[in-house]
Every structure is written in C-alpha cells, then in structure tokens.
Design a protein that fits this description.
Blueprint: H1 2-7, E1 16-21, E2 29-34, H2 47-71, H3 75-100, H4 104-131
Antiparallel strand pairs: 1-2
Helix pairs in contact: 2-3, 3-4
Length: 135
C-alpha cells in the first residue's frame, strides 16, 4: 500500500527524488522531490516540437545526401552536404553543451565557441568545395 502511495504522489511526477522517512510511519520510505519548474511550461509555443522535427529532417536529409554525393557529384549536392553536416553538428554539440555546461558566463562562452566552430566549419567546407581539385 505504501508503494502505491509513493507512485501516485503528484510531486514525484515532476521532480528529482530525495528519500526521507515519513514521520507518521517509521517503516515507510517516501520520496521528496526538488527541482526548478520549467518557465515556458504550458506557454502554448510549439518551438521545441518544430526544432525536434527539423533535427529529424536534417538527419534524414543526411542519409539521402551521402549516396547522392557519391553518385551525382556536383556543387548543389556538395554545398547542401556542407550545410546539412554543419547544422547537424551544431545542433548535436549544442545539446551536449545544454546538458553539461552550467553557469551563465560559462554557457555564454560555450555558445560563442559553438557559433565560432560552426561558422569556421561551414566556411572551411565551402572553401574546400570551391577549391577542390577534382572539379
């Protein structure tokens, strides 16, 4: 019965678990949850959903661009591949930074570094496409 009460507590559904003993029942271990609330929760915005959909579309596009670049080499496919690879890497590294970088100043520095890295990557790929000896 105590286990059922533990899983149906509303607070358990939204926060990190910190175990503690219930003063009313010495043998029951309950969970106290501590976490900050999402500021944008319930705002009605679907930006996160659209971003997720964009990430999936770029991933599928990369699957198609690999064979297309091999069988139909040309500037359109090469520059599309450069853009899709850069965007895919930018979003992926951005998620790693979101998960592991904490503190306002560190986040700003990491994001600035990410934008610099993505810009240099795209410029380098475009430079390579333009000056490639095989064309």
């Amino acid at each position: 019965m105590a286990l059922v009460a533990l899983f149906y507590r509303h607070a358990l559904l939204a926060r990190q678990v910190v175990p503690h003993k219930d003063p009313g029942s010495p043998d029951v271990l309950l969970a106290r949850i501590h976490a900050s609330h999402n500021v944008n929760a319930g705002s009605g915005s679907n930006a996160a959903s659209l971003h997720w959909t964009g990430e999936r579309l770029v991933s599928v596009l990369l699957l198609a661009l690999g064979p297309a670049a091999y069988f139909y080499p040309g500037p359109v496919v090469d520059y599309s591949l450069a853009g899709a690879l850069t965007l895919h890497g930018h979003w992926g590294i951005g998620q790693v930074l979101t998960d592991y970088v904490h503190g306002d100043a560190k986040i700003r520095m990491a994001n600035a570094g990410l934008f610099l890295l993505s810009t240099v990557t795209f410029a380098g790929l475009c430079y390579f496409n333009y000056n490639d000896a095989s064309q």
